[in-house]
Amino acid sequence: MDIKKIDKFIFQIKGKNVDAIVFTDQETISNPDFREALQQIVNVTHMPGIVAAIAMPDIHWGYGFPIGGVGVFDAEKGVISPGGIGFDINCGVRLMKTNLTYEQVKPVLRKLLEEIFDSVPVGVGARGAVEIDKKTLKEICELGARWAVENGYGSKEDLQRIEDGGTVGPANPDDVSDKAYERGFDELSTLGAGNHFIEIQKVEEIYDENVAKEFGLFQNQVVFSVHCGSRGFGHQIATDYIQIMRDKLADHNKNLPDKQLINAPFNHPIGQKYFSAMNCAANYAFANRQMIGFMLTKAARKVFPKAEVTLLYDVAHNIAKLEVYNGRKLIIHRKGATRALGPGNPILNEVYRAIGQPVLIPGSMGSASYVLVGTKKAEQISYGSTAHGAGRVLGRRAALRSMSYKDVLQSLAEKGIEVVSKEKKTLVEEAPETYKDVDRVVEIVDSIGISKKVAKLVPLGVVKG
Ligand code: 5GP
Ligand code: MN
Ligand code: MN
């Protein structure tokens, strides 16, 4: 690999149609554990119509494209690729603020955590709280979070606080297979398992008083984070279209350095259909997080009847979008990457247009998580993108080999963190040790300026699948 250091945290790796850009530190660039992931971002530079291939400091291996990656393609000459978005379409994070302080919550933390665990369907095979038919699911495909709000889950104000208002398009429900619908019925309003979580957190530190105030954050405030996506519905859509592309676009895909980079020209009918089906899954995920947010609010009110729970923001971190940069229409794949638009950007929700987009970067159940704000710099150097998490360092199997359930529980207990989980195994697979140092990831993106730190959150209680 031909790697050139451009700046303290910016590296350039020789690619084919363009060079890859990696935002990280020297340690990660030279760490053999990340070689494969770096090779993946280089592979992306071989794809047709590629404009930029960028990796974030939370980079790690993923299907075809690395997680923590941004693949930018020309909308006319470029492609759309399911591996550039991920199987969990519109996996994302929402942050809900409360008017409660740490002192108020501390004595009833366990109760609050269990109330949440009992209110939100969690874990593999959990069924959703609502019965829906195909007609309703098609409506959800088109309307996303708007469907949820129109059906009593939350308020209209919430939509101003969701990326793209919680509805993306074009989203034609006819582009979704029956098999995907079958999987979608039962899982709406469920959290899922593994890396997905609900966390009760405390605002530990404020870095930018001004922006924190605009976001409604204050020291010692209790907040909730929710991380989940489109469940089996999105997974099936990704699977379906990978198969369709294999069957129908074999010739177009024959020269790829990795067959997992399978794609369709964006302008080809298959590319357009995948984009539309992907948007259906993204809308399902927006509705899902909106419904979970509603259930979470109800759970909090059981313990604190007067609690005010309001949405700060809901971001997508596995999605592709059409965006215009310098007058050029681009299809931007963010896979394990967060949009980070700066102040004044006209696409931003009105409530945040002047200040910039809230960016949510979770760490792990045993470390901090961060709220940041998008920047003009991100628009200039990373197509309005930043990191999405700490990123994995240790695989699930390796985690199970090296730690026990007891070890994980004990080390969390030592930090005063309460946990409830459906499966013991999940807790080990998701132990804090399996993730990179989130403080470092955030320091890097903040230092480069592709998003700026606003507040640090620490976990009090965690719900896992
Ligand atoms: P992904 O979507 O790539 O699976 O996960 C996003 C990020 O969430 C991970 O990179 C990791 O840093 C973070 N994460 C995973 N589990 C937890 C958790 O239980 N709590 C918090 N705060 N973050 C987590
Ligand atoms: Mn996910
Ligand atoms: Mn995710």
TrEMBL record:
Taxonomy of the source species: Bacteria, Thermotogati, Thermotogota, Thermotogae, Thermotogales
Alphabetic keyword roster: GTP-binding, Ligase, Manganese, Metal-binding, Nucleotide-binding, RNA repair
Root EC class: ligase
Annotated organism of origin: Pseudothermotoga thermarum DSM 5069
Reaction equations catalysed: a 3'-end 3'-phospho-ribonucleotide-RNA + a 5'-end dephospho-ribonucleoside-RNA + GTP = a ribonucleotidyl-ribonucleotide-RNA + GMP + diphosphate; a 3'-end 2',3'-cyclophospho-ribonucleotide-RNA + a 5'-end dephospho-ribonucleoside-RNA + GTP + H2O = a ribonucleotidyl-ribonucleotide-RNA + GMP + diphosphate + H(+)
Gene Ontology MF term list: GTP binding; metal ion binding; RNA ligase (ATP) activity; RNA ligase (GTP) activity
Highest taxon, organism lineage: Bacteria
UniProt protein name: tRNA-splicing ligase RtcB
PANTHER family, per database record: RNA-SPLICING LIGASE RTCB HOMOLOG
Oxidoreductase in keyword set: no
Subunit: Monomer.
Binding positions (Mn(2+) 2): 227, 317
Binding site for GMP: 195-199, 317-318, 362-365, 369, 388-391, 464
